[in-house]
Amino acid sequence: MTEFVDSLLALIPEWGALSLALITFLSCLAVPIPASLAMMAGGAFAAAGDLDPLAISLGALGGALLGDQSGYLVGRFGGSLITRHRRRRDPADVVQKGGGRSAALLARARGLLDRHGAIGIFLSRWLLAPLGPWMNLTAGAVGFSWPRFTLWAGLGEIVWVGLYVGLGMVFVESFPLVAEFLGDLSMALVLLMAALAIAWWLWRHGRGHEDRGKT
Amino acid sequence: MNRRTALVVLLVLSLALAGLFAARAVMVAMIWREEGPVATLPIAPWMTPRYIVRAYHLPPSEMRALLDLAPGEGGRLTLEEIAARRGVPVETLIARIEKALPANAPAAREAPSEEDDHRP
Question: CB under 8 Å to A159, separation ≥6 — which residues?
Answer without folding.
Answer: A122, A125, A126
